[in-house]
User: Fold this.
Amino acid sequence: MKIEMKGIHKAFGSNKVLEGVDFDLKQGEIHALMGENGAGKSTLMNILTSIHKKDAGTITVDGEEKEFLNAKDAEDNGITFIHQELNIWPNLTILENLFLDKEIKNKFGFIDRKAMEKIAREKCNEVGIDLPLKRVAGSCSVGQQQMTEIIRALMTDAKVLIMDEPTAALTERETEKLFEVMKKLRESNTAIVYISHRMEEVFAMCDRITVMRDGISVSTRPISETNYDTVVKEMVGRELGSYYPDRTTVPEGTFLEVRGLTHKPFFEDVSFELKKGEILGVAGLMGAGRTEIMRSIFGIDKKDSGKIFMEDRELHIDKPGDAIKDGLGIITEDRKDEGVILDFSIHDNISLPSIDSFAPKTFIRAKEEKDFTMMMAERLRVKMASINNPVSSLSGGNQQKVVIAKWVGVGPKVMIMDEPTRGIDVGAKREIYELMNELTERGVSIIMVSSDLPEVLGMSDRIMVIHEGRVSGIINKKDATQELVMRYATGGK
Ligand SMILES: Nc1ncnc2c1ncn2[C@@H]1O[C@H](COP(=O)(O)OP(=O)(O)OP(=O)(O)O)[C@@H](O)[C@H]1O
Ligand SMILES: [Mg+2]
Assistant:
């Protein structure tokens, strides 16, 4: 199947999102679609699959002009879309999710679980992924849910597969598996649109790349005819300079101390210190227990035992409210769950947690609040039509920026950041790193959980590595190498 999109225009109200985008897809190629948060990547694919209607432009499939009736029609015609935001029913089992609207019935008209299970198992084996088919999806990891979406898509025998940030929540092993599957699909002539902010993945996997910026397509090239710097420049429209800003703060003294923190079976006997003004990177394979440790520290999850001290004073954190009172802040992995209130405006989301510092609501206070939220939104390059629009109208990456902005406003003493730059484009990433530097200069201590090794190495003063729920090593910046971190992360000494 060969697809050509030409001169695509789309506006949401007065917000012109696409202003003449060209995109073409050849049979059996992996085609990367890159661009800053809000550039219009997801929207373009939503138009291809008729989730949104285009305002102007043409789409041809195998040379014939085509407009699908809706997403289902697109899928019936061989175009399957794995969305950026998970589309999983949490109270159904994985198996039920896999066969939603596509249940297999036996000759008596009853749902044939056995047959469905067999097909699902076969598909899982083919891909080399073990999914707990009978488990309720909501109790599975985000990675497993993501994998469920991918398997569901693979069961459609698509000729064109659109993957919007598919690896954001996957473990390294799952990611490798996915790449193997993608290569197999390419051999069988399936075309893949691959949307990702991870440059290494794009350069390792894709045949061609289209870069979008501000609603237009800037370039389409074979991957062999471009490079990292060119792509970044085309995406951001300017040179970025060095990727990680220099750390200027010299961390000193123990500010926070965690002793023997345990929550079985997730992690055990976790002890570490955090200095004032320090960025402590937390590395490890996905599933090692890093997120669980952070959630327990913050009081989202319980702890079996262990103590937390702030400047020698013991903290008693049983719920997030306690943590916030003690001066802790957290940016969670899953913004949909805990990060933002989607129906509230961008302004309200950024200013909400800091409402105390802006109260009482006099006229001047309201103006200060407005200035602050505008300043943060501009600084992090939140692409928005108006600050009064709901967060739900923002692109995925821009929602993540709102989460970060909101916590900066609170001014915590210790900031826990779990995968802070996941799904964020290179330009805004750089801005977030600079913001982290500024925070530490003001004496804030940061714990940064990240699966992005270059980021961990580039930003951390020290790196704590977690392996199977235990601290397997703490490395100083000057000794830190990718190899050493990986060795600890996989249980080596
Ligand atoms: N349903 C909608 N209603 C209003 N505005 C929307 C809607 N969907 C997208 N937009 C706007 O369109 C623009 C492009 O969004 P889109 O989701 O396509 O970006 P993206 O390139 O996929 O970004 P990201 O990398 O963050 O996922 C954004 O400015 C967003 O606010
Ligand atoms: Mg998107």
Residues 184 and 283 are 31 Å apart (CA to CA). Residues 12, 15, 17, 35, 37-43, 84, 383, 393-398 surround adenosine-5'-triphosphate (ligand 1) (CB under 6 Å). The chain has two domains: 3-236, 252-489. Residues 363-379 form the longest helix (17 residues).
